[in-house]
Amino acid sequence: MxxxxxxxxxxxxPLIEKAVRFFNQQAVDFVLHAGDFVAPFxxxxxxxxxxxxxxxxxxxxxxxKGLSVISExxxxxxxxxxxxxGKEITLVHxxxxxxxxxxxxxxxxxxxxxxxxxxxxxxxxxxxPGECCGWLWGKASVALLELNTLKAKLYxxx
Length: 158
What we know:
Layout: E1 2-6, H1 13-25, E2 30-33, H2 43-46, E3 52-56, H3 64-70, E4 75-76, E5 80-84, E6 87-91, E7 107-109, E8 117-121, E9 124-128, E10 141-146, E11 151-156
Parallel strand pairs: 1-2, 2-3, 3-4, 6-7, 7-9
Antiparallel strand pairs: 1-10, 5-6, 8-9, 10-11
């Protein structure tokens, strides 16, 4: 199962469209968003994914009710624990919201820092796809994770 991962879209509609197009071209099976959508209207672009998806609220998601409604409940409060292909995943906006060593999930997906990184931390795989918006560091990025092999890779989408 191929998992698409992105975060910190911050209303950048052209780059959200690019990320969605990239995920659709890669034929991902599921997508996770680690928060900071910002405004509900941005979710309309995400709804063009050809697969199911889930997301969590980030610290810049002030209109949570609107985000939840427009996403048909796919955006929720984090941390969110999901199970895909028998693998447990913790989705959290800011990794400081959890204690990674005490998390039962072996896969932790986070955002918030806008810095893309993939870290093998003990028995945990921690993935931050970076910022899809490109506002802070000037580079828009997403990640893919093959759940069967736990191989993750970062991609620039600009």
